[in-house]
Design a protein that fits this description.
Elements: H1 15-23, H2 25-29, E1 42-47, E2 50-56, E3 64-70, E4 75-80, E5 85-90, E6 96-100, E7 111-113, E8 120-125, E9 128-134, E10 140-148, E11 157-163, E12 169-174, E13 188-193, E14 199-206, E15 209-214, E16 220-225, E17 230-237, E18 242-251, E19 260-266, E20 272-277, E21 281-285, E22 292-297, E23 302-309, E24 315-321, H3 327-332, E25 340-343
Antiparallel strand pairs: 1-2, 2-25, 3-4, 4-5, 5-6, 7-8, 8-9, 9-10, 11-12, 12-13, 13-14, 15-16, 16-17, 17-18, 19-20, 20-21, 21-22, 23-24, 24-25
Length: 364
């Protein structure tokens, strides 16, 4: 992977300048919101000849991210990074809960249920992975700390995380956001959590570690470092959890895709569904050809992540953000920060994997 100082964006700006643009992307793109129904809570649009229903199902949060569907709870868990809280949408009764993670002054970026107990979750708190119990009253209790990364980089934090089909946790970091939203190039890394509660460094020199997904046969791991404007792919050994031979798979600039790649999920045909931050869309990319198959447009600019859910995993839940949007921006896209439910795609997805965590190391 080349040094980020050698990368250029599609407009000829450096990556460091690009991340300033990325932070302000909602303002830049606010006047190009593709759907004209931004004040409505639902809309029907045509996607690939099908009538697709898009509904805003939660009130807006500041920076929605990290969605995980729990079949046993019939709930969508997700994160508000800026507020440092977990959120829970109950699909049975439509209720919406905010769950405080003590002490409340640290960014929280992912939530994944454990395979041992679906009422206990792997949750990030800045650079630390915690086990957190959430009871029926939506009260969170920190049960233990699992592991911490980058002690020499106290201002870094975790970002995206996923578990493979053997329940191994993969998670990446990024550097601190500056006063104008700029992020330092190459300050992040990608890690795998081991059984002994240590992290293996898989890749360094990462700008913004984001989406992670595996092919249906587990022979490939797809990965997004947003600063590259690409989806990359590794060869993957599911027996050892080893990722190797990283190479480009899908390039946003070469395919003229609006926005930048954020998080992603995979469907039952092995195709990727990638959220386009500052692009108002989620795109489906063919795993075979590497071409865009279809695009789902949203009435907001900052689309952050997508995950499959519902009883048959035929519902696409999409998180969005209003991070750094101005009042004028929000007047044009008042639903920014909402979770959207997309039905009628005629596609089924794969469930997100729960995670197996190492045994107790220390109590908090």
């Amino acid at each position: 992977m080349n040094s980020p100082n050698h990368r250029e964006s599609t407009m000829g700006t450096s990556v460091r300048e690009f991340f300033i643009i990325l932070a302000l992307a909602g303002h830049i793109a606010a006047n190009s919101v593709p759907l004209t129904c931004a004040v409505a809570e639902e809309a029907k649009i045509n996607v690939g000849g099908k009538e697709v229903l898009i509904e805003a199902i939660t009130e807006p949060v500041i920076f929605g991210e990290g969605p995980h569907w729990s079949p046993s709870h019939n709930c969508l868990y997700f994160i508000d990074i800026d507020a440092g809280i977990v959120l829970k949408y109950n699909a049975t009764d439509g209720s919406f809960a905010r769950i405080f993670i003590p002490p409340g002054d640290n960014p929280v970026t992912f939530i994944i249920p454990t395979i041992e107990n679906e009422n206990e979750f792997a949750i990030s708190r800045r650079r630390e992975v915690l086990v957190v119990g959430i009871d029926d009253l939506n009260i969170a209790t920190i049960l233990r700390s699992v592991a911490t990364v980058e002690p020499n980089l106290p201002d870094n934090r975790f970002n995206e995380a996923r578990a493979d089909t053997r329940a191994r946790l993969w998670a990446g970091t990024l550097g601190p956001e500056g006063p104008n939203g700029e992020l330092p190039a190459g300050a992040g890394s990608l890690y795998r959590l081991n059984d002994d509660a240590t992290f293996t460094l898989v890749n360094s020199n990462i700008d913004v570690s984001n989406g992670i997904a595996w092919s249906l046969d587990n022979s490939k791991m797809y990965y997004i470092d947003t600063g590259t404007l690409r989806v990359d792919v590794f060869d993957y050994d599911i027996e050892t959890g080893t990722a190797s031979n990283r190479r480009p798979f899908f390039d946003y600039a070469a395919n003229n895709v609006s926005g930048v790649p954020d998080s992603m999920s995979i469907d039952s045909q092995g195709n990727l569904w990638v959220a386009c931050y500052a692009g108002s869309q989620v795109i489906q990319i063919s795993a075979e050809s590497g071409q865009v198959l279809q695009s789902v447009q949203f009435p907001v600019t900052l689309v952050t992540s997508a995950v499959w859910g519902g009883e048959n995993f035929d519902v696409l839940y999409v998180t969005t953000s209003r991070h750094r949007l101005t009042d004028d921006d929000l007047a044009l896209q008042p639903l920014a920060g909402s979770v959207f439910r997309v039905t009628g795609l005629g596609v089924t997805g794969l469930p997100a994997q729960n995670v197996k965590l190492p045994p107790i190391i220390r109590r908090t």
